[in-house]
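Today's session is about reading a structure prediction critically. Students often jump straight to the picture, but the first step is always the sequence itself: look for stretches that repeat, for charged clusters, for runs of hydrophobic residues. Only then move on to the predicted structure, which in these notes is written as discrete structure tokens rather than atom positions. Here is the chain we will use throughout the hour.
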Amino acid sequence: MCGIVGVVSQTAVNQLIYDALLLLQHRGQDAAGIVTQLEQKFFMHKAKGMVRDVFRTRNMRALPGNIGLGQVRYPTAGNAYSEEEAQPFYVNAPFGLVLVHNGNLTNAQALKEELFSTDHRHINTESDSEVLLNVLAHELEKPTRGVVLTPADVFAAVEGVHKRVKGSYAVVALIAGHGLLAFRDPFGIRPLCMGKSADGTWMVGSESVALEGTGHHFERDVAPGEAVFFDLKGQLHAKQCAVNPKLMPCIFEFVYLARPDSTMDGMSVYQARLNLGETLAKRVVSTLPPSEIDVVIPIPESSRPSATQLAHLLGKPYREGFVKNRYVGRTFIMPGQAVRKRSVRQKLNVIVSEFKGRNVLLVDDSIVRGTTSKEIVQMARDAGANKVYLASAAPPVRFPNVYGIDMPTPEELVAHERSVEEIRQLIGCDALIYQEVSAMREAVSRAALAGSPEVKGFDASCFDGVYITGDITADDITRLNQQRVNAEEDAEDNSRLALPNANH
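Below is the predicted structure for this chain, in token form.
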């Protein structure tokens, strides 16, 4: 999961890209990078860390030009501890290309071997984004040898990328001396949208909030399989480059990943979460008599819309029972689970008066590993709760995600090959209520705004095990899990609570 942005303007873009990345910080907190172009020269700065730490005044001054792109990274594959794997990535031929990528290629290893043996291109990192860049470079080179680059050539290259690459990818790329290219995979798994400001500046970004928060009017989403190309004069060219595109976005974006004030593929993220609370309320009523519930308390923070709607429909008080410390630093020594538990308690503190002597219904957006849920349930009990019930606005996460979300291996998923009762016993709550997959799909679909594009379905693979690209086998999942970033002893807590979120 990453956040990407690209800008074409008639004025300097460094500050604009920086501001957009701040608005996308929830999508990646591991590394950040910006590239700008002045005449035909690229200027780049990237490093590990958050946007505010990576870019100082001296770095911003060294990023001149009226066109550029940027990325915030949350690693899913490769080496999270290598500065080299921070994006953007660069190759010098053809023309000079720089690329940022949100997603995950499921055939990256096969492509890497093909690039070396057939295309004679060298990949120097473990990042699938470098693989994608080199595939694009090779496809762009084929029709342009000795001729002037045209938008048609760019679109032909993207068509070639779609034929070779499998998985999820939203891409923004700079072609030196020519313009900015953005495109999406044929299923539109990862989001990408575009907007324009009053002065004619174009911006493409992962979420609409990046556009609106920087003074750009949201124009539309980039369609699945579509490529858009902005030349240096700001002229827009667009073409559908996939043979059989289908809009099937990642449903986890609406459950948890995206900011609530974003609109994605014509659907309001906030409304989707309200709807999830509505359908979850029906599940709660069918499982647990409302008379058994005294108060509804969200687990901060993206579960709040769902918890609010659920409490309203149940006719129960909604209360804030947990306060999150936004300024907890890295936990440098975490050799075992006991230290991880202490880290969760450092991130959350309870308001004892909201728990003492009450039957409490806790609401979370989803439950992944279950370790954080178990600790939070115990915190509620320690605060004096009489009964602790737990409701998840998402169904059980039973399968790993292969499309760009850092999901654990199957063995680490608390719901993998366990019944709801077994999960309840492991977490330690008095009742456990999950959303149903069909209800989740219906709830998010109902968040569509008037005139929005038709959604053919959703990628809900971590819930239902159906991988929409149709190329994933058990062996592939094993291989992809081996590529996942392995936590080091001094790594930051990677529990559910520590994952980046817009509201955290």
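Discussion point for the tutorial: The CA atoms of residues 326 and 504 lie 7 Å apart.
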